[in-house]
Amino acid sequence: MTTAPLPLLVPSYVHDEWWPPSDDAELADVLDACTGEVVARTSSDGVDVAGAVDFARTVGQRELGRLTIHERALLLKQLAQYLMERKDELYAISYATGATKADSWVDIEGGIGVLFTMSSKGRRELPNSQVVLDGPTEVMSKDGSFIGTHVYTRLPGVAVQINAFNFPVWGMLEKFAPAFVAGVPTLVKPAPQTGYVAAECVRLMTESGLLPTGSIQLVSGHGHGLLDHLDYRDLVAFTGSARTANTLRQHPNVVHGGVRFASEADSLNAAILGPDAVAGTPERDAFVRSVVTEMTTKAGQKCTSIRRVLVPENQIDEVIAAIAERLESRTVVGDPRDEGVTMGALVSVEQKQAVHDAVQRLIDAGGEIVIGSAQDERSGALMDPVLLRFDDADTEAVHTVEAFGPVASILPYRDLDDAIRLAAKGLGSLVATVCTNDPEVAATLVQGIGAHHGRVLVLNRDDARTSTGHGSPMPQLIHGGPGRAGGSEELGGVRSIKHHMQRTALQGSPGMVTAVTGVWHTGAPQRLAGDPEFGGSPHELHPFRKSLAELRIGDGYASPLRMVTLGDIEAFAHETGDTFYAHMDEEAAAANPFFPGRVAHGYLLVSWAAGLFVSPDPGPVLANYGLENLRFITPVPAGDSIRVTLTAKRITPRVTDEYGEVCWDAVIHNQHGEVVATYDVLTLVDKEQSS
Ligand code: NAP
């Protein structure tokens, strides 16, 4: 196994320049977790943090603001590809942190994976603009001339990350990605123990040449005083211990200055074995596998690791034996550079001492070691896994003391209510796993513990092999957790991008709201082709004849009326097989509270509407790829007529393709002007080709 030569002096990166610690800086040595060699020296002495914050707010904001959400998201994908090609440089130096290759895979490729996910979510779920609409429109005047809605715009400050030591790459990239897509510059402060890996990743990111100036800056070394320069424009995303989180949360700039502060802190996560999951069942096996994986991956230095193993009281001996057997047969503790090693070292001898101290506190509180030893039997920062047994599951320490290493405690529970009560004694956790194949047990446990957790994983025989596991927060889903876990749930999916934006209520006329948001709102000006009786003009080009470059929000088409006869309804019923009584049986239909008698099928009306608004010849409209928000409002009996108005509501050019998406507002009216149905039609339209 090769180890790259490490940069001994870990630089900071501010104002678009690398700043190695100055000659007179007080340097902290970082040691290889296994060999004890000095691998890096760090110091943030003299780093111009105030200048970095100013640079982010001015240059970073300006440069990121030149791009739309989709353009930034696409850059993120290119950055992910660039890092993926150079990931070996990060693997090579990560061994010194004590991480095995599998641990680093979670950190490095997991981190790069977040970039891919956020890139794709940003482009698929957000508009290609700077303003994001939130929620429905509220009509606030009788005539519809005054409406209200909510919009997100990016925060005008800097996203400061303060990270824990355990995942120097993933921990940084999972926060950088949403900030970048939102258009907010990042200032990252990794933990000094592993900050050299984060610094190397930042070096690759800047060398890629993909990132606009000021997108990312780095403070290597200690972060004390970092919050002194922030105000309400900025946000802090902290990951680390509950103790540090509580200190930072009380900073005057957070308490009085409006700095947005989110924290993900330590957590005493539980795994609950369902009463049905007895020895021999796939669920019991999945449970034991999860416990062992969580004790040994990253040497248990994961905020999501299982710390409390809750087992029905009559199964506790059997489960301890199974965990011991699996640990024995699967775990090889040692230098992660050595062949066959499955569990590496803790990050430092100081961290190992902290874990031993925590184990001692658990023993003093009544815990009995049933696997491993309280003694320091390994050299350096290596440590064997430890399982403690508490016969009194109410022992306070087991619910409050986090041993941030390969340590878990097993506790008996009496019944499901007891299991729920014990899980909640963690006072808010990141994640719990429930192993059961009984749907009632799953429902009872999830309802009972849900509000105490950021995430709950239910494992049974169907997903045990395909599950991403207890310890892996996924970029699509929220993580964080309530209470002790930090109180946050801002990361995960598009909500993490919106977390870097301000939500503002926007009130005004439909025309103004359309102009501001780039999304057409009912009541805003339209340019309709089609039937003059219904607002169309014979001089306007049918909107399906316009390329994406020519089409404007508000362009549309007004169709003429078309009458629905009983014959049409019957033909449609027989053709499709939909002979539901509301369409076929006058007496039964009239007895239904919603219908005057036999009425046309809703799908008949939507199909006819397509025939009424279509411009059939080949042209820029390439495909219809769906409908959204379809509502049938007024029934249409035989003898009524319908017409449709189609208006371009949202136009989204795709950055990577020769076409884009057009969402059309569709409204079907009857001959009295009553609204019959409303929906959105989704089409793909060529960027250039018109006809
Ligand atoms: P930590 O001691 O709380 O440090 C976390 C980060 O805060 C480090 O970068 C640290 O660097 C910085 N920091 C400490 N005091 C600061 C201050 N006054 N101003 C600015 N920055 C400050 O935690 P750790 O030992 O690195 O990580 C282990 C803990 O993190 C465990 O308890 C674990 O459960 C938790 N954790 C939680 C999550 C999660 O997502 N919930 C994830 C990973 C880890 P400096 O001290 O050098 O400034």
UniProtKB/TrEMBL annotation:
Residues 465-487 are annotated as: Disordered. SUPFAM superfamilies: ALDH-like, Thioesterase/thiol ester dehydrase-isomerase. The keyword Oxidoreductase applies. NCBIfam families: PaaN-DH, PRK11903.1. This is Phenylacetic acid degradation protein PaaN. The lineage of its organism: Bacteria, Bacillati, Actinomycetota, Actinomycetes, Micrococcales. Belongs to the enoyl-CoA hydratase/isomerase family. Belongs to the aldehyde dehydrogenase family. It holds the Pfam family Aldedh. It comes from the Bacteria. Residues 21-449 form the Aldehyde dehydrogenase domain. It comes from Arsenicicoccus piscis.
